[in-house]
User: Fold HTH cro/C1-type domain-containing protein from Pseudoramibacter alactolyticus ATCC 23263.
Amino acid sequence: MFFDRGYNQSKIAKALKIERGTLRNRMADGGWMFRLKDIYRMAKLLNLTKDEILEIFFADDEMAEEK
Assistant:
């Protein structure tokens, strides 16, 4: 998601005003720990479409049912 748009974890973390380790932990949890404001900022920064936002952060998969 990041790399094909010219970003890396460090740049995304800086834009979100969080530590890179925090970003990594949130990503490792399948995105379930992202705050809405973080999702909004990433969507703007990465120029994500509504469909991409839904697919990346709000996917209805087996993991979502477990949480």
